[in-house]
Write a structure and sequence with these properties.
alpha/beta; Rossmann fold; five-stranded parallel sheet
Length: 177
């Protein structure tokens, strides 16, 4: 769906901050499935955590991403997603070898424009939900920056500038600013 825009890339690269800035400008947003899953799992006795059962976590992220897409059809106009289906399918395929990326990625399209946050060590921080180190985040970025083009997406690497400038960059590429 051409009005569904993915923000992906390096973990800790500023996606959530950019998403919040887009929300403040009036756009609909969908928060990252992974963080929502981790919060839910930590509140209970769940084991679908990336550091406990990564494949179960990725499968749950796929299911949540599909539901997010379905729910987002009710929003008018452009909708920005903090990660989504392609990220989760890429992770599952990487971990298990299950060939899910191509089929899911072709059946459930987003806008051809995908925005990637590059590795940015100066702003990277771990927290309760993000327990992997920076080198793991860079590996994830490398995998995603290769996966999206194989599915026909056009990658736009976000510049390492202020949040406002990043927001303007995204909206300019999309012809919204």
């Amino acid at each position: 769906m051409d009005r569904f825009i993915i923000l992906s890339g390096c973990s800790g690269g500023g996606k959530s901050t950019l998403l919040e800035a887009l929300k403040l400008r009036g756009y609909h947003i969908v928060e990252e499935p992974g963080r929502r899953i981790v919060i839910e799992e930590l509140q209970g006795d769940g084991s679908a955590l990336p550091w406990v059962d990564a494949p179960a976590f990725a499968r749950r992220a796929i299911a949540m991403s599909l539901k997010d897409r379905e729910n987002a059809t009710a929003f008018p106009g452009t909708v920005f997603f903090d990660r989504g289906l392609i990220d989760a399918a890429s992770a599952l395929e990487h971990m298990t070898g299950e060939p899910v990326l191509a089929s899911l990625g072709r059946m459930h399209r987003y806008s051809r424009h995908v925005f990637l946050t590059p590795p940015w060590p100066e702003i990277y921080v771990g927290d309760r939900e993000r327990r992997h180190d920076f080198s793991a985040a860079v590996s994830e970025y490398d995998r995603l920056s290769a996966a999206y083009p194989t599915l026909g997406y056009e990658i736009h690497v976000l510049p390492k500038v202020s949040v406002g400038e990043r927001t303007d960059f995204v909206l300019s590429i999309l012809g919204l600013g």
